[in-house]
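User: Please fill in residues for this 585-position structure.
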């Protein structure tokens, strides 16, 4: 499907009909690649019976409840029913123990659970005798700073000297009764008011930005950044995840010694924190700073030292905010530089023999921002170097690059889409006229984030399902159930289209998106909701999990997958799980 053709004469994009003509190909792929995976053994059938019995029992109880107070739990907001799920034996006995393979959709800025984050910050303050690196919390907001910072913003002492009087050391703040809960609410979507069915999606996105503006300053410290990812990876390992593809923005470190806070222009506003963070963090497109990636790799290494050399693999998809407008010069420049820097970083690690940076993505709300079409025409299908050449210092660097060798010059002529893979978010919308997916299926070669409204564009859906005879019929959809519910795209899991996608032959995997805000660390909560609320079957769960193993054993650069290795690893993990689960059901 993803033939990546761009034809202005076809109104932008052109679907190669030849690619769509192979009607039986999905059955071919399912049979050849997944046949062995999808067939259930006697033990697995027993497990499936056990799971279905539990599901039916819960559905039956909800319907027959004489007091009409017992709604079917997957029909409730996740934030309200979370404790119930945690205590449910299907969750603790089956989903928690299930091998998850890869977590392919999670955002770095909100990856660690809110509980984990608070614990990490307290530990940080305890181990940091150096006062200037201690974390303080903004406790009283005065009018002079109310546009820039919201109550609960967290800083290092060296970053907030000017407003020190309005802040408290975090541990002192938390000593006051009720403040732990207060902070937890400020760092997540917890709270019934927010989860009310009437809360609009746009409002949730505003809250999203405000919440992440509270922690944005902390990521400027390399040590903390590394500890943060270590803690996040630990949560992954605890949930049976063995591979993470992390979406993260560019970060520039400023430690306590060099530590002035990030320059903030007058127009900075906490409600658009991530947008401004991208605008204010300068990225060099030719030789980008890779310290933040090294820090994430260090965190992964710490986990492998602790749990063994195969414990966790990490690859990165770098991102920019979708609220940057490709029609505004300065913002287009920011986007262009980030994409070119991503390609440069990909090369940087490949030269060391490591595949680390695999692609680029635009994150943030789709509605209210430009369409993917606009990014495609103005940026993605433009040559590398386009969009900022005339800008002072960088033009010299580009000039040098041109002069250094003929080969580099040819490299520069390549379109961005030829230099880097895109893993775009698309289809997170309830608007009928959001057809971002039409473009995304062509640009995103391997996967698409969310893809919620795919069933509204049947032509695209059938096109993917009937794609060419390949091992994985791509793009694969990264479905994040709890995200879809909390942001209001699908309030009730029973009306979620995931089952329909899988049945139609669309390959999907499950991600958790933003565990800090959504309260869903690991993938178990999302899987429980998908199984209970959307009526999936055990083979469907196996199919989704095995697909993530294929990506773990994928070399994106060479475009090859070690299928046998992936199968072997999956079957070993899965058989262990079946043995273990037999004893407790
Ligand atoms: Zn996402």
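Assistant: Residues filled in for all 585 positions:
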């Amino acid at each position: 499907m993803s033939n990546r053709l761009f034809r202005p004469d076809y109104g932008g994009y052109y679907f190669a009909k030849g690619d769509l003509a192979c009607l039986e190909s999905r059955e071919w792929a399912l049979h050849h690649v997944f046949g062995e995976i999808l067939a259930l053994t006697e033990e697995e059938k027993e497990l499936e019976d056990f799971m279905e019995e539990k599901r039916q029992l819960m559905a039956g109880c909800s319907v027959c409840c004489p007091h009409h107070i017992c709604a079917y739990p997957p029909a409730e907001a996740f934030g309200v029913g979370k404790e119930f799920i945690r205590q449910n034996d299907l969750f603790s006995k089956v989903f928690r123990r299930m091998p998850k393979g890869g977590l392919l959709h999670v955002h770095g800025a909100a990856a660690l659970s809110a509980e984990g984050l608070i614990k990490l910050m307290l530990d940080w303050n305890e181990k940091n005798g150096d006062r200037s690196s201690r974390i303080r919390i903004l406790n009283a907001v005065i009018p002079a700073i109310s546009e820039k910072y919201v109550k609960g913003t967290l800083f290092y002492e060296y970053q907030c000297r000017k407003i020190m009087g309005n802040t408290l050391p975090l541990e002192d703040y938390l000593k006051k009764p009720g403040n732990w809960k207060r902070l937890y609410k400020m760092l997540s979507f917890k709270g019934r008011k927010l989860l009310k069915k009437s809360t609009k999606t746009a409002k949730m996105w505003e809250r999203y930005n405000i919440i992440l503006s509270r922690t944005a300053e902390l990521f400027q410290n390399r040590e903390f950044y590394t500890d943060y990812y270590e803690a996040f990876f630990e949560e992954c390992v605890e949930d049976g995840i063995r591979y993470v593809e992390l979406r993260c923005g560019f970060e520039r470190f400023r430690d306590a010694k060099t530590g002035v806070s990030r320059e903030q222009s007058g127009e900075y506003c906490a409600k658009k924190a991530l947008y401004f963070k991208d605008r204010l963090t300068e990225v060099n497109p030719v030789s980008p700073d890779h310290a933040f990636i090294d820090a994430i790799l260090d965190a992964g290494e710490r986990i492998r030292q602790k749990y063994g050399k195969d414990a966790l693999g990490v690859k990165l998809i770098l991102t920019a905010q979708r609220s940057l407008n490709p029609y505004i010069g300065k913002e287009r420049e920011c986007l262009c530089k980030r994409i070119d820097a991503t390609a440069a970083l990909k090369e940087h690690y490949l030269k060391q023999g490591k595949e680390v940076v695999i692609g680029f993505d635009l994150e943030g709300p789709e509605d209210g921002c430009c369409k993917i079409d606009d990014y495609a025409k103005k940026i993605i299908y433009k040559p590398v170097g386009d969009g900022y050449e005339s800008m002072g210092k960088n033009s010299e660097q580009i000039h040098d690059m041109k002069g250094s060798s003929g080969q580099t010059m040819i490299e520069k002529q390549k379109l961005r889409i030829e230099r880097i893979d895109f893993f775009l978010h698309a289809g997170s919308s309830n608007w009928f006229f959001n057809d971002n997916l039409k473009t995304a299926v062509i640009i995103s070669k391997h996967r698409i984030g969310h893809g919620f409204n795919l069933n509204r564009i049947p032509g695209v859906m059938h096109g993917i399902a009937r794609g060419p005879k390949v091992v994985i019929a791509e793009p694969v959809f990264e479905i994040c159930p709890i995200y879809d519910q909390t942001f209001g795209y699908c309030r009730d899991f029973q009306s979620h289209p995931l089952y329909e996608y899988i049945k139609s032959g669309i390959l999907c995997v499950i991600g958790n998106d933003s565990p800090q805000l959504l309260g869903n660390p690991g993938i178990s909560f999302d899987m429980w909701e998908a199984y209970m609320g959307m009526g999936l079957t055990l083979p469907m769960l196996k199919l989704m999990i095995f697909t993530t193993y294929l990506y773990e054993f994928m070399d994106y650069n060479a475009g090859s997958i070690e299928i046998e290795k992936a199968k072997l690893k999956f079957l070993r993990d899965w058989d262990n799980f079946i043995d273990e689960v037999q004893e407790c059901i």
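For context: The chain has 26 helices and 16 strands.
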